[in-house]
């Protein structure tokens, strides 16, 4: 007993470590429940709106209140300079962002503004706070297409993803799941052609069935949809989408994850820069995006080594967060970069106070935290932060990339170093061949159009097809 008392006294006399302080956070968030991709245009459902709103409430309790509150962030009245909210030009993702923000910063009360003439103006909707959602081009229209690279303009990412359809894994799964997908034809025949019900369209099929099980009171041949069948459909969809989003030996297809890495680093650096300068800006960044970005990022940072679930498509309203924090004393000012650490959290599905995100180690390690210096260096190995870097990684040479296409610039290496027997680089040869082919095709097309009276119309005007045209090198089966 005396020994226990002695330890208690020593503990009381020991210096107390400085409390942990969260300096900023970056959240990447998936949209809420929506209508199926096979019936575009997709729309956020009431359930999806509620999921996004609930997630916003959770992150309000985490970052605007409580022990994990971000240092210096406004709790109730939004200060726009402290936030950065982005989403692609996509109604499902934009509306999910709006729902989330309503939970993050709810109305501040029935505030009344008095004008110079004495008239009082009451704020609509009990003081609903208007928070702009900035649009980004990456992932625009992603919820209206079946193939996750359809929204990418990155040439090398598309080529890399297409190579999945010639892989041994793909051919094996497509061949060995014919009977399984044939059993699903009665369930989806009202939407999909029988010829399209196979592994090639694994996600489209799963998505259609998944939405139906959530919203439809009756489903054709519903007896087919046993728990085992639903699990297999999800598992195959996961394998299909992860195969398209990431490959360890060909990371060109993970471009969306590389771009996200660049955006995370850029924002964290701005948070540190602002904090060092004594500014209250850049406290919290929230980006809404499609599941493809989750998958490619998971692969890039080695999360499948932490848990096999990181090779699967995240559920609706899933979120991952990166917290900048320090154990140093911040009373005298913002800590030095050497004292700043990073923590990664992920939650599959809607986060809430009863179901909170969990911490996972990054880059194949075992520690749940790492210094910002190490995090920045690791992420910087593949992060894409500039247009020039994006153009060179993607192999694009037109539009905004034209300025970086010249190989005469001694400050930059050519896009491809491999050369054929004639001394011409593979990249240059491919571009020349492509232009020659394009000229022949366009000439023939022009003649056909002139003789046949055809005209060019917008692809949008033709309407979206229910099945993704993921690749043209694999025969339909």
From TrEMBL:
Record field: transmembrane: 426-451
Assigned keywords, A-Z: Membrane, Signal, Transmembrane, Transmembrane helix
A Pfam match: His_Phos_2
GO molecular function list: phosphatase activity
InterPro entries assigned: His_Pase_clade-2 (IPR000560), His_PPase_superfam (IPR029033), Histidine_acid_phosphatase (IPR050645)
Signal peptide: 1-18
PANTHER family linked: ACID PHOSPHATASE-RELATED (PTHR11567), PHOSPHOGLYCERATE MUTASE-LIKE PROTEIN (PTHR11567:SF142)
Family: Belongs to the histidine acid phosphatase family.
Protein name listed in UniProt: Histidine phosphatase superfamily
Organism: Massariosphaeria phaeospora
